[in-house]
Amino acid sequence: MLKRLAICFLLVQTSYVPLHVQVQAVNNASTLSKWENKAIEAAQKRYPKTEVRSIQKVWDRKRTDEAVKQYHLTLNKKNKNFGVFVTISYEPTTHIINKIVIVEEYK
Predict the structure, then answer these.
(1) Most exposed among 25, 33, 70, 94, judged by the fewest C-beta atoms under 10 Å?
(2) Dist. CA 16–CA 32, nearest whole Å
(3) What pLDDT, on a 0 to 100 scale, did the predictor assign at position 88?
(4) What are the residue ranges spanned by the domains of the chain?
(5) 8 A C-beta contact, residue 75 and residue 102
């Protein structure tokens, strides 16, 4: 009984750690990847006068003809936080962007 309880406790502790590590604060732009910077630029172009609070990679897919990455950005405008999803589609060999889609998070 005690052994099972200890194993459950360890599983909960180890599965909890990656959740808060994945969200990245956008204070230091030099640590961001090329695609994260492109997502921030696209979001700030669509929503001017907003501050990017955090960015998190949701998923990515790479095929021979197309690669897609999706990010979730938390933006702040006049002390109001809201989230947007930025999806970037590009050629995997040349890194030429095909399309950028920005969708506001539904609440």
Answers:
(1) 94
(2) 24
(3) 97
(4) 25-104
(5) no
